Amino acid sequence: xxxxxxxxxxxxxxxxxxxxxxxxxxxxxxxxxxxxxxxxxxxxxxxxxxxxxxxxxxxxxxxxxxxxxxxxxxxxxxxxxxxxxxxxxxxxxxxxxxxxxxxxxxxxxxxxxxxxxxxxxxxxxxxxxxxxxxxxxxxxxxxxxxxxxxxxxxxxxxxxxxxxxxxxxxxxxxxxxxxxxxxxxxxxxxxxxxxxxxxxxxxxxxxxxxxxxxxxxxxxxxxxxxxxxxxxxxxxxxxxxxxxxxxxxxxxxxxxxxxxxxxxxxxxxxxxx
Length: 273
Prior knowledge:
Layout: E1 18-22, H1 34-43, E2 47-54, E3 60-62, H2 69-72, H3 83-86, H4 118-126, E4 133-138, H5 147-158, E5 168-172, H6 175-184, E6 189-194, H7 200-203, E7 212-215, H8 217-222, H9 224-232, E8 238-240, H10 245-254, E9 258-261, H11 264-270
Parallel strand pairs: 1-2, 1-9, 2-4, 4-5, 5-6, 6-7, 8-9
Antiparallel strand pairs: 2-3
């Protein structure tokens, strides 16, 4: 059966891929902290990527893992804690655990390492002196189900960013989550993330024609046919997580429109800004 011709959304044409800072400039700075995002902005990143989870009292916070052990050395789940409880934790020290013993290390602002709410990140972007886009990933499975997307669209709506022309787009590995966003805010761009190459033939018949596809760089390297198929179908491609010159070259060969990187400054350098 022939597929309906793809409807492409109007986008500003670029002569290079958009460079998206993955959890901020996270190669050198603790991920998802305000410091990591400010560093990415100062480095010239075109867009910022974040993961969001819902706290027990209904706040969206920028945290990747459901469990807090890796980034705070504290047992506990984000979904079972209130924002005030999370605000007591240090989300930055794990990145440079010996910094307090380094006399030459710059003084660290403790507030810059606190839990970052999505609202604070949006305020930072809105106040910046140039247009910056946002790629917001909702994490699933979660005990709150579709409430995550509903709260996300509500918060974006507070900034007027829940309609066409928004600097924000929403991503997820969950097909249900992306469909929810489309029902709640039909004008928002959405990205279906693809974890494994063999998932794409299953997803392809049910993915919207104007959805962006987000494969991982490892799958594109290990399964070249995936990139060829996406390109042949005219899909817009955003790739994660691109940190080397070789991986960037692969993305350029495929004509991807966004590379999500822990090292945005390095990607911009390779692209000649």
